[in-house]
Amino acid sequence: THFGYRDVPVAEKQKLVGEVFSSVAGKYDLMNDAMSLGIHRLWKRFFVATSQVRKGDRVLDLAGGTGDIAALLKERVGETGELVLGDINGDMLRVGRDRMTDRGNVRGFEYVQCNAEALPFPDASFDLVTMAFGLRNVTDKDAALREIARVLKPGGQARVLEFSEVQAEWFKPIYDFHSFKVLPKLGSLFAGDADSYQYLAESIRKHPPQAELKAMMEAAGLARCSFRNMSAGIVAIHTGYKV
Ligand code: SAM
């Protein structure tokens, strides 16, 4: 139904996701600004500002990439807090670490290359797990959600910020045009890579919509799950708790 829509076989997906993010790692932030007209910064600020996080917390930012969320979280956990950036892609993690070091953020940070589907952390080891614009790239999302629930301490919070289903009918054709016509052009212009951005647009359309993701979180063992739309559902924040 969407122009340019095609299926990516599951087996190829992991490899493709790796290549996408390696090819864009250096220009990732510039592209985010260009694609969202800078609005992704507001979404991220709101996401962190409304998270359950206290001074001294130990937080995992999954699919942490270039570290936008982690940098905002650091302000909240303070000197005594600990932030672990987990990402499957070494290039993204390296850009994130360099950026963090440039901002003077060194102490209290850890960088772990890991797959969200099989986390290398013991049970009940984090007060908060955040995942921003990462879940839709994960092949087995149910496994990732189960892992998030597993590594959370009782009372801990899971928070997912992700593209979701646009709610306003009149906006859908404009959004599709932006995603499938403008976005790949911006991709080739800025990053010399239209395919990666074509893939990103498709991954957004395939991601489970609001209610479905909420049900998946419940099935993964998280309690009191809820979601909240931002920008008419272009993105949504999903929240759940470990009991
Ligand atoms: N959270 C950052 C932000 O909001 O700017 C980065 C988001 S970026 C769109 C998606 C990230 O997810 C990439 O860095 C990618 O390497 C990572 N990723 C994709 N699949 C993953 C997986 N299975 N496990 C962990 N990270 C993954």
From TrEMBL:
Methyltransferase required for the conversion of demethylmenaquinol (DMKH2) to menaquinol (MKH2) and the conversion of 2-polyprenyl-6-methoxy-1,4-benzoquinol (DDMQH2) to 2-polyprenyl-3-methyl-6-methoxy-1,4-benzoquinol (DMQH2). S-adenosyl-L-methionine binds at residues 66, 87, 115-116. Keywords: Menaquinone biosynthesis, Methyltransferase, S-adenosyl-L-methionine, Transferase, Ubiquinone biosynthesis. It comes from the Bacteria. This is Ubiquinone/menaquinone biosynthesis C-methyltransferase UbiE. Its EC number is 2.1.1.163, 2.1.1.201. Pfam families: Ubie_methyltran. GO terms for biological process: aerobic respiration; menaquinone biosynthetic process; methylation. NCBIfam families: MenG_MenH_UbiE, PRK00216.1-3, PRK00216.1-5. Belongs to the class I-like SAM-binding methyltransferase superfamily. MenG/UbiE family. One of its GO terms (molecular function) is demethylmenaquinone methyltransferase activity. SUPFAM superfamilies: S-adenosyl-L-methionine-dependent methyltransferases. Pathway: Cofactor biosynthesis; ubiquinone biosynthesis; Quinol/quinone metabolism; menaquinone biosynthesis; menaquinol from 1,4-dihydroxy-2-naphthoate: step 2/2. PROSITE patterns: SAM_MT_UBIE, UBIE_1, UBIE_2. It comes from Thermomonas brevis. It catalyses: a 2-methoxy-6-(all-trans-polyprenyl)benzene-1,4-diol + S-adenosyl-L-methionine = a 5-methoxy-2-methyl-3-(all-trans-polyprenyl)benzene-1,4-diol + S-adenosyl-L-homocysteine + H(+); a 2-demethylmenaquinol + S-adenosyl-L-methionine = a menaquinol + S-adenosyl-L-homocysteine + H(+). The keyword Transferase applies.
